[in-house]
Amino acid sequence: MEIKILKEEYWYGGCAAWGGQMPLGERSEADLQLEPNPTPNQAMPLLVSSRGRYLWLDGVEEVKFSGGYIHCQGTAELYPNGEQSMQAAAEKQTLRDAYQKAMERHFPFSGKMPAKELFEAPVFNTWIELTFDQNQQAVLRYARNVLDSGFRPGVLMIDDGWAECYGDWQFHKGRFPDPAGMLRDLHGLGFKVMLWVCPYVTPDSKAYREAVQKGFLLQNESGGSFVAEWWNGFSVAVDLSTHPACSWLDTQLEALRGLGVDGFKFDGGDPTHYVGAYSGGKAVIPNEMSHFWAEFGLRYPLNEYRSAWKAGGLPLMQRLCDKDHSWGKTGLAALIPDLLAQGITGHPFGCADLVGGGEYLNFQKNAGRLDRELFLKHAAVSCLTPVIQFSAAPWRILNADQLRTVHAQLAVRRQWQEYLEQVLCECARTGAPAVRYMEYEFPHQGMEQLLDQYMLGSRLLVAPVLEKGKTAREVYIPRGEWLWEGKLLHSRGEVLEFYAPDTFLIVLERQ
Description:
31 strands, 30% helix, Alpha-glycosidase_related, Glycosyl hydrolase family 31
């Protein structure tokens, strides 16, 4: 299938991790692989255009932008098509129109949303501080440090390393001698507690022997257990396409809930981990396995995902993949573009990774020279997004003045907390993104390629300071009236410079 790109038409979507490549226009050259999703983040078979058109690409393995055309390997649905497509462009249809039509047809929202606790206060995660040395004493110390440093209790995630082994989801008896008591203590401090889990099983374990005997695992081509290679080595994989295997996993997680666990961080499930796997004698479609993993988490409102396929419209909290502790396109500069891409593909309940970056090796290699300014500016980006999540401890990394900056940023969030929750309820009801492209709210005004500022809902323009050493930045202000720190601005559609030395965060309210 071949589609001509219209003059001044721009396309968005696909994978959240492609945010920095978007939008693509008539002069763009790009090869986009969809099956299997090669990125470690959310993906949808969807491209939407600033001229009101969309491409639904379910079953399409690759899309190529070249020579002013979009080339699809396989059958794609273009809406509107033929003469209707040209008419839509002539009638100045918009990015919002395209997204709305695609969402209503292919991934309508249910009105449900993830647990409200994820949005009400900062989320804290033990990963960067403890990595694979998760233990009861250190978790409790981390939680108490959260409170002692002036932060509100909210959700606390205990990350990878708490269990005996993968697939045998019980607390390690040596590192967690009294998990029920620990959970009671954490609840007493005011926290909801989530645990890290994955859809894999450690080979040569009791869990493996049970799972293989009962047929709960994916197979290789010859009928033996399929071995997935992932970032933690080699594991066998639960066959999430079958109800008995899902029930087996669910029974283990429900036992943890009975112990006092409130929810789960569902990691892994990347499509690339399933290449070469079989189920019932047939080769699996890797993206479908990732989708089954996303669907599994719907029974737990307190959830987090990172990798997902066709999870648009589902009430799941979706985190951006681990970002580097850096200023560039793999670190801070990727956050807003990727959040925008999340939203336009149907994932409004987003999280801009862990503040400072979630790539733990960066913190180990640079332990003595972490960039405190980078940490603060990542917090500024996260501040007015659905979920702000800390892992690297602010009380360890920052000095007293810098810690006060973080609290000033969180005070801005509290100022807009009621509005943020209204936006998220609207997202659940209407399917609209929370973090929105400027083009989405202000179509055909020349903002198609503006990726370093965004609208939170329809009312707040958010522009964090992103450059090292800067306390000010230029912001494009669309036509109309805007409120900035109590002052009314009348914009004709212009670029203005704003200073934000206290929070690195510029927020204008649309009047």
